[in-house]
Amino acid sequence: MQTRNINLTINGKKYELVVDVRQSLLELLRERGYTSVKQGCGVGECGACTVLVDNVAVDSCLYLAVWADNTTIRTAEGECRDGKLSPVQEAYMEAGAVQCGFCTPGLIMATTAFVEENKGKTLSRQEMKKAHAGNLCRCTGYQTIINAAEEALKK
Amino acid sequence: MFPIENYHYATSVEDAVQHLAAYEGTKILAGGTDVLVRLHEGKSGYGHLIDINGLDELKTISMDESGTIFIGSRATFTEIITNDIISRNVPMLAQSLLTIGGPQVRNTGTMGGNICNGAVSADSACAALVYEFDLQIQGTEGERRESIHGFHTGPGRTILQQGDLLKSFVIRPENYTDFKASYIKYAMRGAMDIATIGCGAAIKMHGEEVETFKLAFTVAAPTPIRCPTAEKTMKGAVISEESLKRLADAVAADVKPRTSWRASKEFRLHIIRTLAKKVTRQAVDNQGGTC
To answer: ipTM of this model?
Structure first.
């Protein structure tokens, strides 16, 4: 088994790990209890495994764990601080953008990256849809998700 | 776990080239949006990997005093799209890359991978062909520069030999200065889809007349192609319904579309003729996108 030593920060907590080079970041995160990160398709089509690597949204299923060396990872459970939801999480709740919930953590992270990049800008709904094109949801029909993104951008 | 049998994390370009040349069948791992998908699917031939993700020198996007643009092979689609040098000088490249996958895929996928995997549908290929990219390649014998013309040799095939590593794309100023360009991707969906047909054009006007015209297609032949017959009909022409009709008629001689589950040969030919006209108008207006 080939391994590499990596240092990374997950939701503010520092880790020094020896990781199997064959492991995905998705597997690494779930093994350590960050189970908001879901495996859906495993090939980068559904976005359920979306996390932020140095504030950039990536599909953690298509990301080797060794690439996370010297990075800061954010997952949905880390967005809630001191029992308080993040503005994006709050917006999802208010908009009723959650049904079965499987896609929600990935979508929360996609919206979080989108909102942080576009703070203060006025964007069309079409632009918001494009920013969420990498995430599938089979329950909501997406309208409430885009409503949530729209509200989160204003917060 | 990905079924990786042998893995090497390259520490320099030379180190990557040495390891690539040493084991036949070794593949380069860059953004992973193709290679890791193949591995996940259990496809053979991807077990031996050289990971180039430590080579930060391959991420640079720059321009020298002569106006020549260099794009590192490892620059992600998002890094290229959001780069000022790109949006100011070769905006059609950014426009093309925005049609790829979704945000997460564009945040990790690289243009080096898009061109080197030899995909017939590569969304960066039309831009590469009309802006006449050169490719700076490091091989076992040293460094060399190849043209994008002739780089693709068939579906999934390129001129790259075992031991070759693409370092950067080079765009010379004469190939973008005073050109207006556009790209249209025809696909079933507006995102997360592969082109049924991709079409790019670059046009340089002299007053009302076309001075230079370049037209490229993906998925219209076994490799991405330029269209010499169609391009000739536009030389000295004024953009009009008539000249665009001549263009659409001539383009059939340049393409060789095939039937696949995505579209029939006849439908592809129809899209090709329609897009040739549409992309030319858009290039003149300097707009574009997906359709």
So the answer is: 0.97
